[in-house]
Design brief:
- The protein is α/β, with parallel strands linked by helices.
- It is built from ten helices and eleven strands.
- A six-stranded mixed sheet has the order 1-3-2-4-5-6, sandwiched between helices. Strands 8-7-9-10-11 form a five-stranded parallel sheet, with helices on both faces.
Length: 261
């Protein structure tokens, strides 16, 4: 279970999670140092479940490498996936041989920086602060979830939005609701037609749940007829977009929406 510091941070700055297979003295010292500078930092064991529990509000991951990195391959694969899927920053601290093991699993383009020991703590602090300023508060990228059973279309939309927004994906309504129960998003792009639970049914379930009722929803559909539009008006969607929309059109819709909010 992740351990959080008692230090209260009032600034709207993303959280830092220091991940380590061992509770080393240096890892604990870094947490104290960061928290003393009003950077909310928590310690997380290098286990998938512990990392998953710590992701809410986290903008930057720091992997404190140690001997035996080849023994936590599953954790490294999980880190690779979430860094890419959630567009999180990842910093490595350790020795060259440990770094060489990690980069076989996590591509270098997904690694923000790597610091070799002995660690220059002042430089690390400066770069962490700079990263959080660029990616937290008003500067934080909004998170958009795409829900669509058409995997090709969903990945196309993800490619369009990546770089502008944090993007999450779900290929059915049940999966979307399960994810949203754990991790909040700023907008849901919801396919109108899906098996089991269609878009309007999923939107109604989200709206009727106190935890997700305030998440805005935009429908994505192949049908622009009056009856289809009227059928979801009562759900008060943020918008109703045809799937023929192109990349620039979609980005403008989203940018305008968030600018109004």
């Amino acid at each position: 279970m992740a351990e959080t510091s008692k230090t209260e941070v009032t600034t709207d700055v993303g959280q830092v999670a220091i991940i380590s297979a061992t509770e080393s003295f240096l890892a604990k010292s870094l947490i104290s140092k960061f928290n003393s500078q009003d950077i909310k930092t928590i310690f997380v064991h290098a286990q998938i479940t512990a990392i998953e529990e710590a992701l809410e509000g986290t903008e930057l991951l720091i992997l404190y490498m140690s001997d035996g990195m080849e023994e936590i391959t599953d954790t490294l694969v999980y880190l690779k996936d979430i860094v890419s899927d959630r567009d999180l920053g990842l910093i490595l601290i350790g020795e060259l041989d440990q770094y060489n093991i990690v980069k076989k699993i996590i591509p270098e383009q997904n690694i923000q920086e790597c610091y070799m020991r002995p660690l220059d703590i002042d430089l690390l602090m400066k770069n962490v602060s700079s990263y959080l300023e660029r990616n937290s508060g008003e500067n934080r990228k909004k998170t958009v979830m795409i829900v669509d059973d058409d995997l090709t279309y969903m990945w196309t939309i993800r490619e369009w939005l990546s770089g502008h927004y944090h993007v999450r994906m779900a290929n059915n309504g049940v999966q979307a609701i399960s994810q949203l129960a754990k991790n909040k998003v700023d907008l849901v792009l919801l396919d109108y037609e899906m098996p089991i639970a269609n878009g309007p049914q999923v939107a109604a379930m989200l709206k009727n749940d106190s935890d997700t009722g305030n998440i805005p929803v935009m429908f994505l559909t192949s049908h622009g007829d009056k009856d289809s539009v009227l059928s979801v008006i009562k759900l008060e969607p943020a918008d109703y977009l045809l799937k023929t929309i192109d990349r620039d059109g979609l980005l403008k819709k989203l940018d305008d929406f968030f600018a109004r909010k």
